[in-house]
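Look over what follows to help learners.
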Amino acid sequence: MNYRLSDLIDVEKTQELLQNFKDAQGISAAIVDLEGVVLVASSWQRACTVFHRLNETACRKCVESDTKLANELLEGKTFSLYRCSNGLTDAASPIVIEGKHLANAFIGQFFTREPDLDFFRGQAKELGFNESSYIEAISEVPIVPEETLPSVLSFLTSFAEMIASLGLKQMEQLQTEKELRKAQQILEIKNRKLRESEEDLNRAQAVAHTGSWRLDVQRNVLHWSDETYRMFGVPRGVPMTYEAFLALVHPEDLDLVKVSWQEALAGAPYEIEHRIVVGETVKWVRERAELEFDGEGNLGSGFGSVQDITGRKQMEEELRKSRDELELRVQERTAKLTEAMTRLELMNQELQEFTKLATHDLQEPLRKIQAFGDRLKSRCAVKLDETEIDYLTRMERAANRMQHLIIDLLEFSRVSARPEPLEPVNLNDMAAEMIELSRSLFTMNGTVVEFSDLPTVEADPAQMKQLFHCLIGNALKFQKEGVPPHLKVYAHVQASGTSICFEDNGIGFEEKYLDRIFAPFQRLHGHGAYEGTGIGLAICRKIVERHGWTITATSTPGVGSTFIVTIPRRN
């Protein structure tokens, strides 16, 4: 219940009732809600309105009296009688509607015996009132003898109950009116939806081009709907028979319709698609029928629907033509792709042969440079000064570096030019083998290499050896001076896949050079600082990409690097 008492009572009539009570008994009365708002009230006694309520000290006593009365009613009492500190008596009774305490009915500002005028003269002096005026106001306060007090209190409680009863009836009426308005709104909404549904149905029938028919077996007449007449191009109202209908069927579909109808008369479903001729236009329709038979198996009646499916048939025909054209194009492009793949394979073979010949031809003069350099150095060393020997040494180093570049370039080209089939590779075994090989190549005191829990993957074994050899070799090569190398090889499994991590404690690098380190012949250090041609990580990336994986790295200069090969999860 969300009503206030002021919504449930006739304020004007209640005001008139309380004023009549005041005029008859001389006792003031009021109805006050729980927030202290006076809803209705008769005129108060002058002792309160002119003196007590206007004096701060006396008014505080009045508020204490009001609070005392209200608190006793909140505790569930049927009425409360209280003599305030100002000397006047008040009574109150709760107004409760459907168990909810909404307000209080008050009567008050009366005496139950002759007033003690000495008390009020003292109060006038204490509070600064004009004694004669104050005593005159006190004399206007009615006296309710104790023998008549119960009847007055009975009136108070009866009055509160009457207000509650009237309020309940008003609340029920308001609730009924509210529910009636709600029901009217629901009815209006349903009526509006019903009208909208009827309109939608009419529009849907027109848009769907769906008609209906009913067979009158006794008269051999087909009763068509308006949409069916329009669909077949027949003026509305023209009598239709089964024979007249057959005259509209396309000649090439006539046998299909006749056979299907005979099968339907024998109990088979009747649901067919066929063409009709409307003037010079050919249409496609879809028919469906429900036939009813009597106990002896004779046709009693028939109902059916007919739908114009010309648009759908045209789309199907266009789709078929498009599919045929697409299939032809696919065949042509497949043939061209096959031819291109054949040419590419031939080019790869030719490129591989060319690479072999080129590297062989390039290494031949290098070997001669190295050989004649060694002879010149051994035979003529005594005849050469320090500068000439330095020149000769530099020439040999350049030739050696060139030879390594050619070998690495050949390895780089072989990654894609000669792919081997993939097979299961145990990376734990691979790591153990490559670490042992690396230990023989990089003899460093105190070197620590750890690996564990590496997965088995589908890969090219030879290329996995290249990948592990390069990444492990890099980790052992790029080390801080005086610090024993420490390499960890481990797997990190995630929902998206598995990452193989190569974590070292080497010199590290600035991550802004991350893209650069995987490019061929790119070096972050001079040739004299560390050995190598700068193509190792390029080979690693090419191997990883060939397997459909990815490779990246994280690094901090002076702390170390972690190279990460990520193998996506296969669904």
